[in-house]
Recover the amino acids of this structure.
């Protein structure tokens, strides 16, 4: 800042006659400088992040996707804080798609609420299902009601601090207004509604919602601003240059039938105003009227009802919007791929195949690194079938080990031989022993970094533990066992007379063991009917069901889901009680030592997560 004393000295040192005026002029100059600083201080105060709730009909059109991308970009710049997103359409992929976009931007914990009622003619979407395949952890069945999300989000904010940007129907807002009028009046600073000013033909009328729109516009207690421009402002074509992992890119790509074009930017303009206000970009019109097709007319009034016009060219808007839409996540969460060894009895049942398909899909998303696959059954086509699946996914170099001992009454398989006819370059005779594979792979990994996911018998693990107890203790972070704790260990811990072997592993294993039992009522697999016939995972399910596609329980897939993603929002951990095996051995459930997972989601939600991953194609 300018040193006033130095400045004054320079002014007066040449004119001694003015010395008597020095104090007065000094005060005047200080006052002038203060006046000049006031606007800057005011702007600094105004740049507190705008608290936003985004109410969207993200479904039929794609500008809602662009607008949500803008909100994340503006938050990256410190201009806004996205408190919640609520969905005013009824498409089942709406909540997961929104959550996928939030997750991409590193904000997967933003609350997402959905409209819980129904529409007589709900809209289809050209892109929601595709966007919902991107990483997320919220399904429609588990999403809270929009009204509940509004209540919680508003209650936690300062009075008069929240701007709601509505770019769809007003059904959620109507529910909120009817249920919580005082909360609205107290917490909401402004409501921005993207809609036509006169006789709107979509947002204020579609799904027979015109009377609901009338109620909101007529009775909303705080300022309501209509944003009705954007039709001639075509943005989004630039997303062609965004990363393929970006779900916003996918939304526009699928909307334009696997191409990239510019789309009208109605919703993006509503967001720009909602966050940045008038600035030099918009002009707020506070006279005139607005109207609905049912005959309702409302008057504009300063500080209460108004609408927007814009002061810059369409091309200038496109530049602003495209630049924000192309802004990457502020910092993608440091996703360190989990290091996994998959130990499987892929033979009698087919869920092991689904589990391996999931691992490859999650490896495509950089969630996991598949270090090796070990086969704990004895079947001549086990190793080549596993290698065929790995080869299909472009990972034919993953080490595969087989159990070289013997077991009582080995199982036959309906699908291993057919799957082994798919391209591969490993047969059982040339396969290494699982002990050799475990030794080689574990020695190369950092201490405490490897998760072993076991979805079969523990004979491989017992041999590893007997021969390399110190290696196990040093390198293995966690052992995830597909087995029950209260059913005697079920099939996996007792078949082939292996109860005593299972007892040895549970008793002596030096790092945490997590048991996973859910899956028996979670049915997956029929969707593979639509996957390419060259896919060996499809072939396995087809042959397992005698040349048909049917549902199969997902025990092993649930184990993989926990093994890679942990508890997340999928599970809680059981840390008390006892477990037992069929031979009478009992063990204590204890936090950090021997625990078990408990499901949080519905069976249908798990099934969708699993099947979406199983249907994920190889990365090109």
């Amino acid at each position: 800042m300018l040193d006033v004393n130095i400045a004054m000295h320079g002014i007066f040192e040449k004119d001694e006659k003015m010395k008597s005026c020095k104090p007065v002029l000094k005060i005047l100059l200080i006052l002038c400088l203060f006046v000049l600083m006031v606007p800057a201080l005011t702007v600094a105060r105004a740049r507190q992040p705008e608290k936003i709730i985004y109410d969207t009909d993200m479904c039929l059109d794609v500008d809602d996707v662009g607008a949500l991308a803008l909100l994340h970009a503006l938050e990256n710049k410190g201009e806004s804080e996205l408190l919640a997103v609520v969905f005013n359409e009824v498409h089942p992929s709406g909540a997961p798609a929104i959550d996928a976009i939030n997750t991409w931007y590193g904000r997967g914990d933003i609350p997402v609420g959905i409209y819980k009622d129904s529409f007589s003619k709900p809209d289809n979407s050209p892109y929601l299902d595709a966007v919902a395949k991107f990483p997320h952890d919220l399904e429609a069945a588990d999403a809270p009601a929009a009204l509940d999300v509004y209540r919680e989000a508003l209650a936690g904010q300062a009075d008069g601090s929240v701007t709601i940007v509505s770019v769809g129907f007003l059904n959620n807002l109507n529910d909120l207004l009817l249920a919580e009028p005082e909360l609205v009046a107290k917490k909401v600073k402004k409501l921005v509604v993207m809609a036509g000013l006169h006789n709107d033909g979509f947002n204020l009328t579609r799904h027979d919602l015109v009377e609901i729109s009338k109620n909101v516009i007529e009775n909303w207690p705080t300022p309501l601003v209509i944003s009705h421009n954007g039709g001639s402002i075509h943005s989004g074509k630039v997303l062609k240059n965004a990363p393929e992992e970006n779900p916003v890119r996918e939304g526009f790509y699928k909307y334009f039938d696997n191409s990239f074009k510019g789309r009208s930017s109605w919703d993006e303009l509503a967001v720009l105003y909602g966050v940045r206000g008038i600035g030099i970009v918009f002009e707020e019109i506070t006279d005139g009227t607005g109207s609905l097709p049912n005959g309702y007319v409302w008057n504009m009034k300063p500080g209460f009802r108004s609408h927007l016009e814009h002061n810059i060219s369409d091309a200038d808007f496109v530049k602003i919007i495209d630049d924000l839409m192309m802004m990457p996540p502020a910092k993608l969460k440091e996703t360190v791929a989990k290091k996994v060894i998959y130990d499987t009895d892929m033979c009698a049942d087919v869920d092991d195949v689904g589990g391996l398909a999931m691992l490859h899909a999650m490896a495509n998303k950089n969630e996991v690194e598949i270090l090796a696959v070990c086969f704990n059954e004895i079947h001549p086509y086990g190793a080549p079938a596993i290698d065929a699946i790995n080869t299909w996914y472009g990972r034919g170099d993953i080490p595969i080990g087989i159990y070289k001992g013997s077991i009582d009454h080995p199982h036959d398989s309906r699908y291993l031989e057919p799957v082994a006819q798919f391209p591969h370059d490993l047969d059982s005779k040339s396969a290494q022993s699982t002990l050799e594979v475990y030794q080689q792979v574990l020695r190369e990994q950092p201490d405490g970094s490897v998760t072993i996911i076991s979805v079969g018998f523990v004979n491989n693990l017992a041999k590893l533990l007997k021969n390399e107890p110190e290696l196990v203790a040093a390198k293995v972070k966690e052992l995830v066992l597909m087995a029950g704790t209260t059913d005697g260990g079920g099939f996996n811990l007792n078949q082939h007379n292996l109860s005593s072997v299972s007892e040895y592993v549970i008793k002596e294993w030096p790092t945490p063991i997590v048991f996973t039992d859910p899956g028996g009522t979670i049915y997956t697999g029929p969707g593979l009917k639509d996957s390419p016939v060259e896919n060996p995972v499809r072939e396995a399910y087809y042959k397992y069901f005698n040349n048909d596609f049917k549902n199969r329980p997902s025990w092993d897939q649930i184990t993989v889901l926990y093994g890679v993603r942990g508890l997340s929002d999928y599970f809680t951990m059981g840390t008390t009680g006892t477990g037992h095996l069929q031979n009478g051995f009992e063990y204590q459930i204890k936090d950090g030592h021997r625990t078990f997972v408990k499901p949080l989601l519905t069976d249908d939600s798990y099934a969708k997560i699993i099947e979406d991953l199983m249907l994920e194609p190889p990365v090109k």
Remarks:
- Residues 1-46 have pLDDT under 50 and may be disordered.
- The domain at 54-325 is CATH 3.90.245.10 (Inosine-uridine Nucleoside N-ribohydrolase; Chain A).
